[in-house]
Sequence to fold (127 residues):
Amino acid sequence: MTPVPELPDRGHLVWVSLDPQAGHEQAGRRPALVVSPASYNGPVGLALFCPITGQAKGYPFEVALPSGLAVSGVVLADHVKSLDWRARRAEYAGTAPDAVVDEVVRRLVLLLGSNPSEAAVPPAPIG
Fold:
């Protein structure tokens, strides 16, 4: 593993610390797929990551990584996290195929809804 070149970009496979965690969240230093573009990650200092686990359970939001990559397992598209990639010591481990990245993003769109009317509406402020 090497430090992330300049900054993480969509499709990069990285090792990143997910601690602290709570409940059913993935924990520890583990591989993750970067789903946000460098054009966001650089100026903001954050990136959107989907953790990768070696324990596939057949959930609908798992996306399998092909063999032959430096990282193996399934991407958990529904565990997306926004993290400070510098503070979390992201280390570059490779790049996922475009087809994997596209499938993860497709499942995120399914989860969030493809247009605003399908997404959950936040409650009005109280007071």
Observations:
- The chain has one domain: 2-111.
